[in-house]
């Protein structure tokens, strides 16, 4: 994936196992009168309520993960008879996306869901929406100030690296002088640095393991294949590979197969369907992947609907939805891949 700014937030919940599992559709175990126990305000539920028009603006779907973001938003909105989704044509040009969001503001949508092509560059239009009284759900790539959004929801890049490192560490903890390599994303992205930092911090718990090489790719199949081939040539022996992204992992696996290598284990990142299928088949070095779930877009629609209806999230005592929600980076391997298979993106 190719976000241009960092992602952040407070830890909340677990990765979704279906489009709405994280927030449970903002539903609750509410009494029959619709009120939460001990609350002055009901939580949103699947029962139709006040109609909400949600404007959705995201970048161009030039990556499997971004395409899945759009699909999750659309399918989630279709679930609700009280939601109309005004969706823009995705663009990686910041000026174009700003114009699209301003059009949605002028249409007076009730709530905006925005995955900015560049969080810094789009901060002002987020502020404009908020000042116009339109709550903004900032999806994944964060604006420069929390004044530009009512709620942020996104993934945990540091947690991805941390959980990948611990998974590999537990697999290799009894192997003397274990060696690992890393196929990173784009080094000019903060998210790449966060994933590497999490991985390195996890490995500090395993003194028998040393990271002997790191190569940066750029989240494409072609770069994954080329950079992995370089790693394999430079490192004839190692025990594990942490690959930041399942799309570039497709290319990495091609390079590994072409080199005839099967003497190490590989952990991927994001949660692509192809990775889940390879893990299920168990016929390659890929043994696990760490989630960065695109189901966050479905949860963003749930949050926007709740905001538009002036409701909270079931299961929480607070009247309002949280200001920040970070998804958990679950590790998917052969033991649980069946559970996560429906969430895999193409």
From TrEMBL:
InterPro entries cross-referenced by the UniProt entry: Peripla_BP_I, SBP_2_dom, TAT_signal
Keywords, sorted A to Z: Signal
Region span, Disordered: 29-49
Subcellular localization, as worded in the UniProt entry: Cell envelope
Gene3D superfamilies according to UniProt: 3.40.50.2300
Tree of life domain: Bacteria
SUPFAM superfamilies cross-referenced by the UniProt entry: Periplasmic binding protein-like I (SSF53822)
Signal peptide per UniProt: 1-24
Periplasmic binding protein domain location: 54-311
Family of the protein in this entry: Belongs to the bacterial solute-binding protein 2 family.
Protein's recorded name: ABC transporter substrate-binding protein
Gene source species: Streptomyces thermoviolaceus subsp. thermoviolaceus
Taxonomy of the source species: Bacteria, Bacillati, Actinomycetota, Actinomycetes, Kitasatosporales
